[in-house]
Amino acid sequence: MIVTLTANPSVDRTVTLTEPLRRGQVHRAANVTSQPGGKGVNVARVLTSGGVSALAVLPGTEDDPVVSGLRGAGMAFRAVPTGGAPRTNLTIAEIDGTTTKINEPGHPLRAPELDALAGALAEAAAGASWVVLSGSLPPGVPVDWYARLVGELSATGSARIAVDTSEAPLLALFDEPGSAAPDLIKPNSEELAQLTGLDAVDLENPTAAAQAATSLIEHGVGAVLATLGAAGAVLVTAEGAWFAGAPPIVARSTVGAGDSALAGYLLADLAGLDPADRLRAAVAYGSAATALPGTELPGPADILLEAVMAHPLPDALPKALGDTATS
Q1: In the annotation, is 63 catalytic?
Q2: Residue 148 and residue 161: Cα distance in Å, rounded?
Q3: What whole-number distance in Å separates Cα of residue 299 and Cα of residue 282?
Q4: What angle do CA 37, 42, 46 make, to 5 degrees?
Q5: pLDDT at 321 (0 to 100)
Q6: Which of 103, 116, 231, 280 is most buried, taking the most CB atoms under 10 A from its CB?
Q7: What is an example of a Pfam family matching this protein (predicted)?
Q8: 59, 117 in Cβ contact below 8 A?
Q9: What is the pTM of this model?
Q10: Nearest residue to 313 via CA among 246, 229, 240, 245
Q11: Residue 57, CB half-sphere, CA atoms under 13 Å: how many?
Q12: Which residues contact 274 (CB under 8 A, 6 or more apart)?
């Protein structure tokens, strides 16, 4: 079982155009799709499609469109009532794969609702292999809430913890020296730059990204899966660093690509694969999502694992970690 938390679920609405987006002009949509979304929901959807038992924990009411969509898709979920409607995230997809996203802030959560959500998560996490804390936080939620959950879950359970977030909630994971660190984080190049103070453009280079990620390993993170868009991804652990390039695809939409990469990694981990093959699976799933239109997420039939190769990056680890990895 893998449990995902989506604190800020959404209805993901994608409008597909047949021509480039032009500001101030009238466009006619070629296609419009809507799916239950939010990063944790997306991860759970891909995991379920991959044959792994996944439970999505989220705020929601019985009749809101996200909960109804999960129920209609046959997804396992636990919704904690909050009385608010979910946000709508709009993606405008152009024919060349360029996507423009407009994300609403979401319904504010008060302290009692946060406590109920944390309690539901802790209960669901009992006996789980992984707990995934994923996505933005809605208005009113303290920026260190994910950090607190990592500490609480680490102290009370055996599940490994993965975090995929950005900006203040991401930085808060490392604000307190000696605090519990996640077993896995999945930043993109911009988020890795936020954590390390480096330039995001420089971190599009795999070796530079891996070197930057080693500082997070030194802070106690078990593994860093850094996605680099069309370039592929790097994985850094105390055992080593690897890079896998993305296979050649026709990009149609980037919606859910990072979530699919994380799900691919977790599927490979549960299958007992080694770090290099976990990275290959992550890149294969992320690339497959990019090749699909709108809000579609990949399943096993979409994955071209044989087209992805992983290569070690021996120069990425500092000497101290390199000695640990080879000892």
Answers
A1: no
A2: 12
A3: 13
A4: 145
A5: 55
A6: 280
A7: PfkB
A8: yes
A9: 0.92
A10: 240
A11: 22
A12: none
Q: Does residue 15 or residue 325 have the better pLDDT?
A: 15
Distances (CA, A) of 26 to 19, 236, 293, 294, 304: 11, 46, 22, 20, 38
Max CA separation in the chain (angstroms): 63
DSSP structure class, residue 19: S
Contact 130, 263 (CB under 8 A): no
CA dist 72 and 66 (Å) reads 10
pLDDT-wise least confident of 61-70, 138-147, 280-289: 61-70
CB 223 within 8 A of CB 183: yes
H or E segment at 242?
Answer: strand 240-244
Residue 201 has φ and ψ, to the nearest 5°, of: -65, -40
Evaluate whether 311 touches 244 at the Cβ level (below 8 Å).
yes
Taking residue 100's Cβ as centre, other Cβ atoms within 10 Å add up to: 12
**Cα dihedral value 15, 21, 24, 30, nearest 10:** -40
The tokens for 87 are: 């946000």
Measure Cα distances from 58 to 36, 169, 233, 308 in Å. Answer: 11, 17, 28, 33
Closest CA to 11 of 85, 121, 71: 85
Instruction: Check if the beta carbon of residue 17 is closer than 8 Å to that of residue 68.
Output: no
Contact 217, 238 (CB under 8 A): yes
Q: In which band, very low, low, confident or very high, does the pLDDT at 318 lie, cut at 50, 70 and 90?
A: low
Q: Are strands 99-103 and 130-134 parallel, antiparallel or unpaired?
A: unpaired
CA distance 65 to 47: 21
Give the C-alpha separation, 59 to 276, whole Å.
36
Choice among 12, 144, 183, 259 that is catalytic: 259
Tallying the residues shown for the chain, one arrives at 327
Look up residue 240 and give its amino acid. G
Instruction: Give the chain's domains with CATH numbers.
Output: 2-182 (3.40.1190.20)
Classify 29 as helix, strand or coil.
coil
Non-local (6+) Cβ contacts of 167 within 8 A are 194
